């Protein structure tokens, strides 16, 4: 937003601030949806390229929902009042949700194995590790490094335009589709996995913008109801519900 436009927004009636806040959040929401659509289209294109390259090895039999997700989304409600939330006790208000993404970093085997003896496809008869066994190895890392990194350095990454952080948890190597092909992982499949994570990050940012948008709309409606429908606009006609805040 340009400096001149921001100056005009600062000079408007403070009662119109919730309306402008809602419009700004709506603009960010629309921009985020465009980013999500682009990321999803790129992911689908890479998956199509990988499927054509691998043939039958990348099909419904491989993706039987027994894999370990590389990216998941968590939500937490905020009970404390914030500038974007109505005060506690307001009937129409609800605690806002804060969304964040969680990365799963595929751990390497503890001892090197021969390429001829290691299997490239997972053993579906072997139980997968439970979430409790993997939660003890949870660590925070930036969202940009490779999923296969096993460094123990911890850090926190904040998504642009939101307060979301990216958490990384270790998982078994056999549950990552990229490990099924050994050292010859198709570049398109690796790119699709990265782009899918980017799409999830964009969706999380959009969800957080939507929460702030709804809070701004509730604040605008509250001020509109306080002014009431009998506000005189100066021309002798009472203000309607759409003119009460102007």
From TrEMBL:
Residue stretches of biased makeup (Polar residues): 128-137
Organism superkingdom: Eukaryota
Biased composition, class Pro residues, residue ranges: 84-94
GO biological process, one term: vacuolar proton-transporting V-type ATPase complex assembly
Annotated segments matching region Disordered: 74-161
Amino acid composition bias (Low complexity), ranges on this chain: 107-120, 144-161
MF GO annotations: unfolded protein binding
This protein's name: Vacuolar ATPase assembly protein VMA22
Species the sequence originates in: Allomyces macrogynus (strain ATCC 38327)
